[in-house]
Design a protein that fits this description.
Layout (H helix, E strand, L loop, with lengths): L1 E9 L8 H9 L2 E9 L5 E9 L1 H14 L2 E4 L2 E5 L19 E3 L6 E3 L9 H5 L5 E5 L3
Antiparallel strand pairs: 1-3, 1-4, 2-3, 5-8, 6-7
């Protein structure tokens, strides 16, 4: 099974179309919506994780291209800068996916990038700037 994180950009003319439904129902692709900003009648943006057989994902991506959805790889990732982190834990309750957690024995903050949905909540609350956004390398 293949998995990938992508960004979908919906032009205003198809923002209200059920494209995720078609990915699931017609192509058998598992769609996990990580973050979305959809405004009816205006452009929309979704960060998703797709999972399925390579042929299913390929056919689903071809469908998206045909209907006009722009698809690109998730180009940003959050990094935990441990040398700056004081483990104050102010970021932990703001992380919606529990990518940031605290070890109850050592009281050190840990970061699991696999759980991160790049929502930027941690950046907004960390006064030590121990979280940063970086471009992913291809």
């Amino acid at each position: 099974m293949k998995q990938m994180k992508l960004v979908f950009i919906f032009p205003e003319n198809i923002v209200e179309e059920p494209v995720t439904y078609h990915l699931i129902a017609d192509y058998g692709v598992r769609v996990n919506i990580l973050r979305a900003s959809i405004n009816p009648g205006k452009q929309g943006r979704m960060v998703v994780e797709l999972a399925g057989e390579e042929i299913q994902i390929s056919q689903g991506l071809n469908y998206l291209e045909k209907v006009g959805v722009l698809v690109s790889p998730l180009a940003e990732e959050i990094r935990h800068l441990e040398d700056r982190c004081t483990s104050c834990t102010s970021c932990v309750p703001h992380c919606p996916t529990q990518a940031l957690d605290v070890d109850r024995e050592s009281w050190n903050v840990s970061f699991d990038p696999e759980k991160c949905i790049v929502c930027f909540s941690c950046l907004e609350v960390c006064i030590y700037q121990a979280m940063s956004v970086e471009e992913q390398l291809a």
